[in-house]
Amino acid sequence: MDLATLWFFIVGVLFVGYFVLDGFDFGVGMSLPFLGKDEVSRRQVINTIGPVWDLNETWVIVAGACLFAAFPEWYATLFSGFYLPLLLILLALIVRGVSFEYRHQRDDIAWKRRFDGMITIGSAVPALLWGVAVGNIVQGVPIDADKNFTGSLFTLLNPYGLWVGVTTLLLFFLHGVYFVGLKTDGQVHHDAQALGKKLAIPTVIFAAGCVVWTIAIAAGREAPLLPAVIACGVIAAVALLASIAFNWVDRDGKAFAAGAVTIVFAVLTLWLALFPYVMPASNDPANSLTIANASSTQMTLEIMSWAALVFLPLVLAYQGWTYWVFRKRITRTMIEKAEASAH
After folding, report:
1. Residue 66 and residue 307: Cα distance in Å, rounded?
2. What architecture does CATH give domain 3-299?
3. Average pLDDT, consecutive stretches of 10 residues, N- to C-terminus, the chain (343 residues)
4. By C-alpha distance, which of 323, 335, 278, 235 is closest to 56?
5. How many Å is the Cα radius of gyration of the chain?
6. Among 183, 184, 186, 195, CA closest to 248
7. In angstroms, rounded to a whole number, what is the distance separating the alpha carbons of residues 337 and 321?
8. Can you give the pLDDT at residue 160?
9. What pTM, to 2 d.p., does this model score?
C-alpha cells in the first residue's frame, strides 16, 4: 500500500472518530427539548457532555488539517464547492459552543431557554449537513476539467444526499440519547430510554435505505472494495439492531457501545464505497479526483506519517484519560446540591 492510499484511510479513520465522538454530542443537544423537563434535568443533560464536547470537536480540526496536507486538490475542490453548507456547519458549531458557555451566566429562565434552543439548533444542523456533504462526495458531483465544482447548493440537495443527511441526524440523535441514558439517573434516565425506543423505527428505516443505496452506487461504478462495503453495511445494520435491543432491556452501556459500532461501520461503508476516488465527477469520470491525482508529494506524506506515528497515540491516550476521569453518572442530587451551594 502506498502512502497516498494509507492517508486516504487515515483521514477516514479521523472522520470516523469525529462522527462517533461529536455524534453523541449532537445527539445530546438534539435531545434537550425532549429530556429537559425542568432546569435540573436540563443541566443533567448538558453536563453529560460538559467536560468533553470541545475535546470531541478537535477531531474534525485534525481531520481537516490532514485532508489539506495529504490531499490538497481534494481539499480545494471540496471547500470551494461545498462552501455554503460547510459555512453553515461552522456557524452552527460556534452557536452551540457559545451557548454552552453563556447559558449559565444569568439566573433567568428565559435567558437559559434561548441558549438551550441554540444548542438544539447548533446540534441538529451539523448532524444533517455532514451527512448531506458526505453523501454527495460518495455519489459524485459535477466537476470541470480544472477540478472545480460546477454545481450549486441545490445540486447538493439531491435525494441521496438528503437521505444520508437524515440518516446521520437520526443515528447521532439515537447515539446521544443512549449516552444520556448511560450518564444520568432518575427521570432523565428513564425518559432517555423511552425516547430511544421511539427513535428506533425511523432510524432503522433510514439506515437500511442508506446502506442499500450506497451499495448500489458502489456496485454501479464497480468499486474494487465492494465486498468490504457490503460487509461494513451488514455489520452496521446488526449493530444498530443490537443497540435497540440493549436499550429495550435497560443495558445502557451495551446500547451505547453498539451505537458507536453502528456509526463506525456506517461511515466506513460510505468511505470504502468512495475508494479509489476521493471526489467522483458525476458529469464526466475523466474529471474525477482520485487518491493518485489529488495527493501531496511523497516527502509531504512521509513527514505526516512520522508525525502521526508520534502524536496520534498521545492524543488517544489523553482522550481516554479524560473520559475515565469523568466516567461517573450525572445525578439529579449532584445538580441540586450544586445549585444550593451556588445560592
Report:
1. 11
2. Up-down Bundle (1.20)
3. 90 94 94 89 90 86 91 91 91 92 84 91 96 94 90 89 97 96 91 95 96 95 93 97 96 95 96 94 90 91 90 87 86 74 61
4. 323
5. 20
6. 195
7. 26
8. 96
9. 0.94
How far from 282 is each of 129, 160, 265, 310, CA to CA, in Å? 20, 13, 25, 39
Domain boundaries defined on the chain: 3-299
| Nearest Cα residue to 30 out of 164, 158, 168 | 168
Alpha-carbon distance of 212 to 82, in angstroms, equals: 25
| SS3 assignment, position 150 | coil
How far apart CA 98 and CA 87 sit, in angstroms, is 16
Amino acid (1-letter code) at residue 219: A
- The phi, psi pair for 279, rounded to 5°, reads -160, 90
Mean pLDDT of all residues in the chain? Answer: 91
pLDDT value of residue 201: 96
Which whole-number Å values give the CA distances from 38 to 28, 50, 114, 176, in the listed order?
Answer: 16, 18, 14, 19
Pick the closest to residue 253 from 243, 262, 264, 263 (CA basis).
243
- Give the count of beta carbons closer than 10 Å to the beta carbon of residue 148: 13
